[in-house]
Automatic annotation (TrEMBL), chain A:
Gene3D superfamilies the UniProt entry points to: P-loop containing nucleotide triphosphate hydrolases (3.40.50.300)
Cited PROSITE patterns: ABC_TRANSPORTER_1, ABC_TRANSPORTER_2
Residues of the ABC transporter domain: 2-237
Any GO MF annotation of the entry: ATP binding
SMART domains for this protein: AAA
Protein name per its UniProtKB record: ABC transporter ATP-binding protein
Keywords tagged on the record: ATP-binding, Nucleotide-binding, Transport
Length: 268, 264
């Protein structure tokens, strides 16, 4: 479904060039749930933006559904860390925004999309809130609206950039369970960025560990724990703990050629 | 989202009745003080008339004064609308092009820094004694705050919203109308509210010179005949007009932008 071959990204920063990503070879199968984990600044968002077609790679090739990515595709949706809702739009019309922008290209009637929007809002427990404005909702509710918006056109691929990281622990657990439920229902391919090891393990079929500066693929870890899994209470605590421990070690490990830890390099 | 800590909330801060009553009380106290001063210090009416004298003056010739108020009001609104029609697009262009911004900004600053009283006679020379020099004066007065606030608002679009629109494959036009302009509206309205008071001042200044109508003309004439009370009546009407226009904008904003209500 998603294929990256030798993908690299170099930015022209103020202090010279920054290699954000290097030699990324990744193949995400249809219906797979892949989480990307790595320290902040290691190029996770950049990788998602490359797949989304928001940024052309400086080297290598990105393919989605067998076609080279040249720009944003309508069957790929992006979800951000912040809800990114338009404050003047009601919950319902925020969810309908993608349909409204891409007029004509839809394969359903507007009414059908509207029904779908109501369905999705119900799925995440927001029935009755359709006419509210975003500022009347809690952060968790806003992020749920954002989730519905990214699902409205039945995307084949969902790219999620730390979507739950700004939420409190409980909401986060709830939302990750809802996401798994939706995922099982829709068989969407999901690439999910996080910096939480536990979240990465609980959600993923495979975890991709990135190294910082430049972002390279450190390791890909298969997660064979049966679903549904839960962030909070877990029937497979020992397995999760074992894999989490391994990921922790991978993230903490420094590559031999790296002189100083990243955080030291970053602070000026 | 995150709320800032609120000051203590009471009936006085939250009730819509209080929102209307409090300003009226404020006004009444000010007028009371004015009245008290004229009585206590027994000030001559040609120096400072009492509020009562002013009211009496108004009712001596209400038709005439209201007609002059209408003239000034029309000039004010016309100039204000013209400033919006010209100012908002200019602001949009400035935001879109750095080159244009650098070219035009000093010019705008220069025009804004000219004392408007100084060019009132020039406008009369250029445009005659009709309504145009008045409308243009109003335009000059309120153009700048409208441009600045619109430009500021257009620049304040959060990057994640821009990225969202991009990820949805929105066209530039959609990005502009569905996001940038909408997002700028509260700040544009702030500019409007600053501009509307300046607009009223602009109409009065322009009526001081080469005019035969309007409240500015009335004030100027009453100065010539030392009719201080008439001048005060005209000034009071101007204030009422200014306040009414301002609150009309506030209401319009509440109605158009319910999502952007001021939060303290
Ligand atoms: N548009 C850009 N211009 C210059 N540098 C960028 C840009 N976007 C990201 N970077 C740099 O690329 C690196 C990776 O950024 P990012 O993908 O946001 O990391 P992450 O999401 O893992 O925290 C960082 O060092 C960041 O400073
Ligand atoms: Mg990021």
């Amino acid at each position: 479904m998603i294929r990256l071959d030798g993908v690299g990204q170099v930015f022209d920063g103020r202090e010279g060039q920054v290699t954000a990503l290097e030699k990324i070879d990744l193949h995400v199968r249809g219906g797979e749930f892949v989480t990307l984990i790595g320290r902040s600044g290691c190029g996770k968002s950049t990788l998602l933006r490359l797949i989304a077609g928001l940024l052309p790679p400086t080297s290598g090739a990105v393919q989605v559904a067998g076609e080279p990515v040249t720009g944003p595709r309508r069957d790929v949706s992006f979800m951000f860390q912040r809800p990114a809702l338009l404050p003047w739009r009601s919950v319902l019309s925020n969810v309908m925004l993608p349909v409204e922008i891409d007029k004509g290209a839809g394969d359903r009637s507007k009414a059908a999309y509207r029904d779908r929007a109501h369905q999705l809002l119900e799925l995440v427990g927001l029935q009755g809130f359709e006419r509210r404005l975003p500022h009347e909702l809690s952060g968790g509710m806003q992020q749920r609206v954002s989730l519905c918006r990214s699902l409205i056109r039945d995307p084949q691929v969902m790219l999620m950039d730390e979507p739950f990281s700004a939420l409190d622990a409980l909401t986060r657990t709830e939302l990750s369970e809802e996401l798994q439920r939706i995922k099982m229902e829709l068989s969407t391919t999901i690439v999910f960025v996080t910096h939480s090891i536990e979240e990465a393990v609980v959600l993923a079929d495979r975890v991709v560990v990135l190294t910082p500066r430049p972002g390279r693929m450190r390791e890909v870890v298969d997660i064979d724990i049966p679903r549904p899994r839960s962030l909070g209470q877990n029937a497979h605590l020992t397995e999760v703990a074992a894999i989490s421990g391994r990921l922790h070690a991978l993230l903490a490990e420094k590559e031999s050629d790296e002189v100083r830890p990243v955080d030291e390099v970053r602070s000026r | 989202m995150t709320r800032r800590t609120m000051p203590k909330r009471t009936w006085l801060t939250d009730s819509p009745v209080a929102a209307v009553v409090l300003p009226i009380i404020g006004l009444a106290v000010a007028i009371g003080l004015w009245w008290g001063a004229t009585v206590v210090f027994s000030i001559e009416p040609y120096l400072l008339p009492s509020p009562w004298d002013v009211v009496v003056k108004f009712f001596e010739q209400p038709g005439y004064l209201l007609q002059e108020t209408g003239t000034s009001l029309l000039e004010t609104i016309e100039g204000f609308l013209l400033a919006i029609v010209i100012g908002v697009p200019i602001a949009v262009l400035i935001v879109r092009s750095v080159v244009l911004e650098r070219l035009v900004y000093p010019l705008l600053l220069m025009v804004n820094s000219i004392p408007k009283v100084a060019i009132a006679p020039l406008l009369v020379i250029w445009m005659g004694f009709g309504q145009w020099p008045k409308v243009v004066m109003v335009l000059l007065m309120c153009f700048f705050p409208i441009v600045i606030s619109t430009a500021q608002g257009m620049k304040s679009t959060p990057t994640e919203l821009v990225e969202l629109m991009r990820s949805l494959n929105a066209s530039r036009v959609q990005e502009f109308f569905k996001l940038r302009l909408r997002y700028a509206m509260p700040q544009i309205f702030t500019g409007f509210k600053v501009a509307i008071s300046l607009a009223v001042i602009g109409s009065v200044i322009s009526e001081f010179v080469g005019a035969t109508k309007g409240l500015g003309y009335v004030i100027q004439q009453s100065g010539a005949s030392a009719d201080t009370t008439l001048a005060f009546a005209a000034i009071s009407l101007l204030s009422v007009m200014s306040i009414a226009l301002f609150y009309a904008l506030v209401l319009l904003e509440h109605w158009l932008l319910p999502w952007a209500q001021e939060k303290r």
